[in-house]
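Table S2 (text version). Query chain:
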Amino acid sequence: ETRDPEGKFKPNVVNTVVFLVSTVQQVTTFAANYAGYPFMQAIGENKKLYRTIMILCGICFACALNWFPEFNEYMQISELPSEEFRNNLIALMIADLFISITWERLCRSFLRKVPHSLVRPILDYPNEKLVTEIRKKHINKKIEERQKQGDTGLWAQIKKQSQMIQKIQQEQAQTQGHLSSKR
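Corresponding structure-token output:
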């Protein structure tokens, strides 16, 4: 059967399968490539993204299972030819979803180098407030150590430079005052 590229869209099994599989693949790509902790919130903590991913997956599986025939008709999704075909399509979608995400997580856990101070224990997943408190304590200890050492950090250098600039400005003001009084 030949199709006119300029003709009206007619839903068929090929279009339906391509739409459902590509949508699940796009959702899987978002879920798998989401960086998560320590660079961003974990995906479970990012409620909007998590809910969007779950809703899109639910819609795709509901369309494949033909749970809402009126919705499928509205979306121009054709009925799948057989129960076996439907089961194979759903198995493909589930496999794509779980294998991709699992593979990405495994690669991240084995190949990514993260400073030990930023790694959350695998079994003990603390909330963000606890992690923030621990980091603040660590940073405060570092600040106290530097202050005890004579404040040799970046802030000390900035303070010294600003003091030097103030002295230079005062000297310039004094010399300008002497020059104007001599005239």
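Notes on Table S2: The chain has a mean pLDDT of 79. Residues 83-111 form the longest helix (29 residues).
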